[in-house]
Amino acid sequence: MHEYKLALVGATGVVGEITRKVLEESNLPISEYKFFASSKSAGRKIMFLR
């Protein structure tokens, strides 16, 4: 099976938070995650348990 790389744009918004929770609970073959947000969220830390 292939492993994928995933980029999530808008990771600190409401939809991004829900998407991160879904990704935490899934068993998708993702080898690398990248999270992006606007400059308003610069320096903000997010929780993501893989």
How would you summarize what this structure contains?
This protein is of the alpha+beta class and 50 residues long. It is 24% helix and 26% strand. It has a two-stranded parallel sheet.
Write the layout of secondary structure elements.
Layout: E1 4-9, H1 14-25, E2 30-36
Parallel strand pairs: 1-2
> How would you describe the shape?
elongated
User: In which order are the strands of the major sheet placed?
Assistant: 1-2
Helix content: 10-25%
Please state the average pLDDT score: 94
The H/E string reads: EHE
The number of domains is: 1
Number of helices: 1
Largest sheet: 2 strands, parallel
Regarding quaternary structure, what we see is single chain
Structural class: alpha+beta
First CA to last CA: what distance?
19 Å
Task: Give an account of the 3D structure.
The chain is α+β, with helices and mostly antiparallel strands. The chain has one domain (4-41). The chain has one helix at 14-25, and strands at 4-9, 30-36. The chain has a two-stranded parallel ribbon with strand order 1-2. α1 (14-25) links the parallel β1 and β2. It is elongated and about 40 Å long. The mean pLDDT is 94.
List keywords for this structure.
50 residues, alpha+beta, two-stranded parallel ribbon, 24% helix
